[in-house]
Design brief:
about 280 residues, alpha/beta, Rossmann fold, 7-stranded mixed sheet, 10 strands, about 35% helix
Length: about 280
Amino acid sequence: MLQMTQTELATLASDGLPARLTGQWVHGKKYYFCRYLDIMTHGVGRKWQGKLAYVDLFSGPGRSIVRGSQEVVDGSPVLALNYEFARYIFVDIPEVLSCLKKRLAGHPKFSQIVFIEGDCNEVIEEVRFASPADHLMLAFIDPTGLQIRFRTIQRLVQNRSVDLLMTLQFGMGIRLNLNQYIKAEGAKLTAFLGNAEWRKDASEGGSASHVLRRIKNRYLHHLRELGYLPVQDREIDIRNDKNVLLYFIAFASRHPLGGKFWREAIKIEWTGQRQMNYQRQD
């Protein structure tokens, strides 16, 4: 996992605890995140008799500060606690997780939280142990780059009911470094995608956007191989102030109801515009 830099550690939120620096685009991610959690928990809570678990593999310190405006924005762990899950599992490296623990101390749901220190790729067995096998799990996977290995996702979802809400760092994580990965060994990209077949996509040529699209489609294909229903063409791209792609927000579920909830969550864009010409893929 990516550690917070010294600059970020020195950035304090209004509660006096460290916060992570971010950009205005965080509002888009927050919007879709909250929309989906609200729809999901209300939609299946009764069916699962309240047996819902939330897992955050890159929890962060719980708050961010928007560069320039100094606006304080709640992070995914803090936001998730607003929704009805029976168990919350927050994972991150010790120095980040200790900050989150302090921030959440005294929260009425504190006893429902399990904090797991470490790189999620290394502690995934602890994550599985902490999450009841008879619960429906929503895993939020929001790295800052390519830190999540595909084999970690494979293990997380093995023999479990798990929906995946992910930020796929194809902009800053892959597109920016693609030439470097092609020329070098590319072990980091291979671990992220689960194999080295991405080199075939790169060798077929075309623009960087075309290569990126082929690699993204291959990643989504690997998710389908894990039993997930088609998620293609339902990704939301998040861009910075210069309209440069940062990452995609993608959703995957093994049950059609999950796809229905995601379509509802993204029906209206975070800018307030309704999605046009949106085609159902399953």
